[in-house]
TrEMBL record:
Region annotation (Disordered) ranges: 175-222
Origin species: Knoellia koreensis
Name of the protein in its database record: ExeM/NucH family extracellular endonuclease
Gene Ontology terms, MF aspect: endonuclease activity
Domain of life: Bacteria
Keyword Metal-binding in record: no
InterPro entries attached to this UniProt entry: Endo/exonu/phosph_ase_sf, Endo/exonuclease/phosphatase, ExeM-like, Lamin_tail_dom, Lamin_tail_dom_sf
Length: 854
């Protein structure tokens, strides 16, 4: 299994150098950590010789990513403890590193583990878990007492790796913690973005040698099954082997730079020994080197190379010269035709093997499609579920959902390691200012499409075989060759198109024809005060260095400029007008009072845009209540109510729960509930109280005991949301008494899945969730590949008697984020359309009502 971190392909590369065997001198080499550095620290291992260590000494491995040799005879590698300031623990280097070659600097040694060749023998005693390593273009110790926690920024530092709890690092954060059995290492392409957290992963140590990484020792002939073994890692790690097999998949482009090899004549059943007959071969020689000419799908080849485990993927690293044609006398490989195994051990037994997926598969995750060109799948006919959507938190039933998700989860990849939304926060990388921007904008991710959309809940049909793989901590299906967007011609799967032009009328009218329809809709930070208007605002930038949305620094949370707002608004107008509702509760609308304007300025702007499309006077908004708290107690986002005055009429003034917004009160960290009594415009009919809610989010802990995330599936701020539910429960009857109303409809984003404690407060008070009641197998939200509903319409018994049915209109949660206005111009393909799909990240919920309680 191999844990590949996606790479920034096509954006940064080695420093341009003249071809030939010219040696670059130390004085001309680029200094300070940079994504264009020619020589980088490739691997750090500090557990050598310790208990359980696979090798008997520490080491630091350097790699030359360029096309010319680099003289390092005046350089050094230096070490300090995780929070130390002394850099006297160092080794002076000698010689040069050839183009594409590695240099291994040996450190302190012990008695446990195998020995291995080193190019420079030193005595640095590295911590096995946490520390700091610097590659320096002088042999003078760094002035740690002067630079303390920013030694990585010194001009003489060519590269720098902080790992574990280190207080200094390159980029955004330190590399992972290492151990006696794991090093921190870049991927096989030695990808360098000058960000330790992004570039390094913990895995089995794999010391190479100078001159291109030729492994020591004479090779022995082995079968692929012997290389794989029956455990979680190969029993032959570190050994040179020669194997033969049929090429089942090849990736000359996209960053994998390798191919899969499978024992001739194997399949369609797994090897009864429990050892896999497939293995990944990484072809060494640099990311720009083409695959060997014999590496063609269907060819029978012989490979000699070193066995390793990188992030869990068993692989053989081989130079082009060590891959040869093995002839034409062989039996072809047949794809496995088995159900997706439910355990890691069973998956290990088919790792690297060709497979024709059979049975039902369902899309469960499209969020990372935009970034990595991958689609999360669930084996079976339903997506993976949030456990607290279907089971009470902390119960055995909830644990069973987690276990079921683990059994069914697999990811369809694109046969590449590209990060399609890789960004830089470094000045000069994108324009002249230190802002994030898309570096891979010349690429298009696989599996993103408007015409053939890939959506959560859609069924998947495999038309071609795939290879069972493990990368970046996930079990994956790799296509046999790279899938490239936007045409996705090599896709091994086709996806059901589950889009609908309007909410499900049958679900809304299942107990009779609705006289009125009400809805809940989160509009994803609809702000008419724009980021570009405030110099304190920082933006997310597109591939042309244009701001798209606000990132941080100011009160604005939405569109960056007028063009971005227009794109956002067009999609939301399309969604709301197609919803068919007469009353809509909106969440995440700008609270314009926070910007010194009338509170409803942004809400009025949205209504104006709706009417421009639907016709003058079609929509109106409910004015904000005078019961709201002072502006300084309100959030930058608020809730609003819009309605169609031709169909419904307001009764009495709007209301708000404005007495619980102090810092330690229920709504001190959430939006105040707002309400309005409505009735059918013409003819007789019962009034109903329409309440809009937006509870505290799960992402951060509030001020109350129990607000920290306890791990029971409910996230952070459970106590805050419970207090908000209790306050709402107690407030609504007072409004009913004031207005003489009996029916209650409460819509909103409760930030609570259906079985969680805050909603249980309202269930016990007599409220029913109509989404679960009338549309139980669809959900309003998708997070980390898990489906559930954060958006609910709750009704009391009187309103339940008026209810004809309800539907989740799945236009947002299941769509790729690439289609949102906030990702406009992120890719070479323009995916934006002014339609309802991906207008937000939450799906609307629509409820049908009769004019009278039955």
């Amino acid at each position: 299994m191999r844990g590949h971190r996606k790479q920034w392909t096509g954006a940064v590369g080695a420093v341009a150098l003249a071809a030939g065997a010219v040696t670059i001198t130390a004085a001309s080499a680029q200094a300070a950590p940079s994504p264009t550095a020619q020589v980088v620290i490739n691997e750090v291992y500090g557990g050598g010789g310790n208990s359980g260590a696979p090798y008997n000494r520490d080491f630091i491995e350097l790699v030359n990513k360029g096309t010319s040799a680099v003289d390092v005879s005046t350089w050094s590698v230096q070490y300090a403890s995780a929070t130390g300031t002394s850099w006297s623990n160092k080794t002076n280097l000698t010689g040069s590193i050839p183009a594409g070659g590695k240099l291994v600097v040996g450190g302190a040694s012990g008695t446990t583990g195998a020995s291995f060749p080193v190019d420079v023998s030193g005595g640095i005693n590295l911590s096995g878990t946490n520390g700091k390593v610097a590659l320096v273009n002088t042999q003078t110790s760094l002035p740690g007492t002067t630079c303390t926690t920013d030694c990585s920024d010194l001009p003489q530092v060519v590269d720098f790796v902080g790992y574990g709890t280190a207080d200094d690092w390159a980029g955004t954060a330190a590399a992972p913690t290492a151990s006696n059995t794991t090093s921190v290492s870049r991927n096989t392409s030695s990808t360098n973005t000058a960000d330790n957290a992004a570039d390094f992963k913990a895995g089995a140590p794999t010391p190479g040698t100078g001159g291109g990484g030729t492994p020591p020792g004479e090779p022995t002939e082995k079968t692929i099954a012997e290389v794989q073994g029956t455990g979680t890692s190969s029993p032959l790690v570190g050994q040179n082997v020669t194997v033969k097999g049929v090429v089942t998949a090849a990736y000359p482009t996209g960053g994998f730079h390798g191919f899969f090899l499978q024992t001739q004549g194997t399949g369609p059943e797994p090897n009864p020994s429990g050892a896999s007959d497939g293995v990944f071969v990484f072809q060494s020689g640099g990311s720009s080197s083409p695959l060997d000419e014999d590496v063609v799908i269907g060819n029978y080849v012989e490979v000699t190379g070193k066995v390793s485990e990188y992030g869990g993927l068993t692989e053989i690293t081989a130079a082009a010269a060590d891959i040869t044609d093995a002839g034409t006398e062989f039996s072809p490989v047949q794809p496995l035709t088995i159900a997706w195994p439910g355990t890691d051990s069973a998956r290990e037994s088919i790792e690297g093997m060709l497979m024709q997926p059979t049975g039902a598969y369902t899309v469960t995750n499209t969020y990372s499609t935009n970034q990595y060109g991958e689609v999360g799948l669930a084996f079976g006919d339903r997506p993976l579920m949030q456990n607290t959507e279907v089971a009470k938190p902390g119960t055995p039933e909830a644990d069973a959902v987690v276990a079921d998700n683990a059994r069914r989860k697999v990811t369809l990849d694109d046969g590449a390691s590209s990060n399609f939304t890789a960004s830089s926060y470094s000045a000069g990388a994108c324009g002249t200012r230190p802002t994030p921007c898309v570096l891979n904008g010349d690429l298009t991710p696989a599996y993103v499409s408007n015409d053939k959309p890939v959506r959560v809940g859609a069924s998947v049909t495999f038309t071609k075989p795939v290879v069972v793989d493990y990368r970046f901590d996930l079990w994956r299906f790799q296509p046999t060759e790279q899938v490239v967007g936007p045409d996705n011609a090599e896709s091994p799967a086709v996806f059901e198109n589950t889009r609908t032009a309007a909410p499900d009328a049958a679900a809304i009218n299942q107990r009779g024809t609705a006289d009125l329809k009400v809805a809940s809709f989160n509009v994803l930070n609809y702000f008419t005060d724009l980021g570009e208007q405030d110099p304190n605002c920082l933006a997310y930038y597109d591939r042309d260095d244009n701001g798209v949305t606000v990132r941080t620094g100011c009160g604005q949370r939405g569109a960056w400029d007028a063009a971005d707002l227009k794109r956002q608004q067009d999609k939301e107008v399309a969604a709301i007008n197609a919803m068919g509702a007469d009353v809509v509760g909106l969440m995440e609308v700008e609270n314009s009072a926070k910007f010194g304007k009338p509170r409803d300025t942004s809400l009025a702007s949205l209504v104006g845009a709706l009417n421009a499309k639907a016709g003058a006077g079609t929509w109106a908004f409910v004015p904000s209540s005078t019961e709201l708290p002072p502006v300084d107690q309100q959030d930058f986002i608020t809730s609003g109510i819009i309605y169609k005055p031709a169909n419904v009429m307001r009764v009495d003034a709007s209301r708000a729960l404005g007495t619980q917004s102090g810092e330690t009160q229920a709504f001190g960290n959430a939006r105040e509930p707002i309400a309005q009594v409505f009735k059918k415009k013409y003819g007789k009919g019962d009034k109903f109280l329409f309440v809009v809610n937006h509870f505290k989010s799960k992402g951060s802990a509030g001020p109350f005991p129990g607000d920290e995330d306890t791990g029971d599936g409910q996230g952070a701020s459970v106590t805050s949301r419970i207090l908000q539910a209790q306050a709402l429960r107690d407030w609504v009857p007072t409004v009913l008494g004031d207005t003489g109303t009996k029916a209650v409809v409460m819509a909103g984003d409760y930030n609570s899945y259906t079985q969680e404690d805050p909603l249980d407060v309202l269930y016990k008070a007599g409220y029913t969730d109509v989404g679960s009641r009338f549309d139980p197998n669809r959900y309003s939200y998708s997070f980390s590949g898990l489906s559930g509903s954060l958006d609910h319409i709750l009704v009391n018994d009187v309103a339940l008697a008026m209810s004809t049915g309800a539907a989740h209109w799945n236009i947002n949660a299941g769509e790729s984020v690439a289609l949102q206005y906030s990702r406009y111009n992120y890719h070479a393909t323009n995916f934006y359309r002014p339609d309802p799909y991906a207008s937000s990240d939450h799906d609307p919920v629509v409820l049908g009502l009769t004019a009278f309680a039955k």
